[in-house]
Amino acid sequence: CQSVPKPESRMEVCDLNPCPPRWKVTPAGPCSSSCGLGLAVQLVTCVQIRQGKEVLQEEHLCPVAEKPLTSVPCVIRTCSYEWGFSEWSECSTSCGNGIQTRQDFCLHSLTRKHVNSVFCRRFPKAIVMRGCSSGPCPEHVGTVSPGAELQPVTPAPHLTTAAAATEERYKELELPLSAVPREQANTNGGEEDTARRWFLCVCGSLFLNASGIINMTGVGSSDCTVAIGRPLREEITLRILESSLNCSAGEVVLFSGRMMWRTGCRKLPLSLINSRTNTLIVKQRVVLPGNGVILEYNSRTATKKYYQDCDKQLFGPQGEIVNPVQLPEQGQEVVCRTFIDVAPQQRIAIRALDTDLGTRGNHTHFNYILVRDVSTMKTMVFHGKQQFLWQSTGSQAEIEFHE
Questions:
Q1: In terms of CB atoms within 10 Å, which end of the chain has fewer, N or C?
Q2: Closest Cα to residue 234, out of 299, 311, 315?
Q3: Nearest partner of 99 among 382, 401, 392, judged by Cα
Q4: Residue 99: how many CB atoms within 10 A of its CB?
């Protein structure tokens, strides 16, 4: 281009409109969890390009509907948990047969730290109690057979006979008489006074009728608990007729069964509770005196079978439990259970008079008796030829006979 005239070099000023503000996202930080689902935090700011540079702007200048999340889900690896156990304790007796126990806890498999036991709920757990022997005991005179010492447990209060009319009322159900509280069963004032006190003192009672109305108002107690029981083949439906609970004051009513748990306060008169099994416990927590609920319950044949044919139901106040015999067609996988329910303020004591689950040489881990405290869901396992005395912390217990 040497022979061609060269134009003058010049610069022209341009004035383009700035780009609209936009969201800027910085890379997410570390995950909040070392395994499983966690959250990672990312910085989100509103910026605008001016003369080739990012200028920070107020957030309302960027489109709110398009703002990215400041926390995003993240998963590094799948979490895994397992049961851990402490060492076995020393034998509970200095001679004869006793028990050894150990504590169980849920462990994070990577960090080996203790976590909530709910994470290990779906994993099988080994036994936490086993029999032990400390050698023969010196011969002595007593009611306990040699080599079989019992753990000292405070016996549960015995039942005194209630009024004849009350007893006949429960005989019609072909069920044992409920464990009437001692103060309700005192007959010093005559049958008429006993019947009057029975109906006035609702709290702590066990109702075995097929239907009825329970008035829990004005009980004069901060907590009032009643229980309803029926034969195994039935279930219970319950309706709230009236409620004067003050929800803002913390008053509430709880319904619990072997397969359900429910609590509420507002709109209770519209509620219909189904126990799904043959027992139901109603606990009323009242702050203000005079308040409470009025219940109506009925029983009916269960819509779904929730028990084995070899299962048994006992309502107390006393009885004998015999290891159920499995039918040939049931096979060995069936676990036979005995359910025990008493009045809410009563407790259950189980004494093993004679057990023979095989010697230590030929019994297996699948051949044992399991006793469960329903209120705490703690279990105790008995093997071999142990004699024992067990007591509950609540009013419900279950016994499972394995093989």
A1: N
A2: 299
A3: 382
A4: 19
CB 162 within 8 A of CB 185: yes
Q: Return d(Cα 3, Cα 19) in angstroms, integer.
A: 44
User: How far, in Å, CA of 323 to CA of 334, rounded?
Assistant: 13
Q: With beta carbons less than 8 A apart as the criterion, state whether 203 and 183 touch.
A: no
pTM over cut 0.70 = no
pLDDT at 326 over 60: no
Task: Check whether 55 has a pLDDT greater than 50.
Answer: yes
For residues 194 and 3, give the distance between their C-alpha atoms in angstroms, rounded to a whole number.
132
CB-CB contact of 74 with 31 (8 Å) = yes
Q: Convert 279-290 to b/e letters by CB count within 10 Å (16 or more is b).
A: bbbbbbbbeeee
For residue 88, CA distances in Å to 112, 236, 359, 364 come to 20, 43, 20, 19
Q: Which amino acid is at 190?
A: G
For residues 58, 60, 63, 66, the Cα torsion angle rounded to the nearest 10 degrees is: 90
Residue in the structure block whose two tokens are 């008995």? 382
**CA 42 to CA 193: how far, in whole Å?**
74
205: amino acid identity, one letter: S
> Is residue 226 scored above 90 in pLDDT?
yes
Q: What is the pLDDT of residue 380?
A: 84
Query: How far from the centroid of its chain's Cα atoms is residue 274's Cα?
Result: 17
What span, in angstroms and rounded, lies between the C-alpha atoms of 23 and 236?
A: 58
pLDDT tens figures, 146-163: 333 333 333 333 333 333
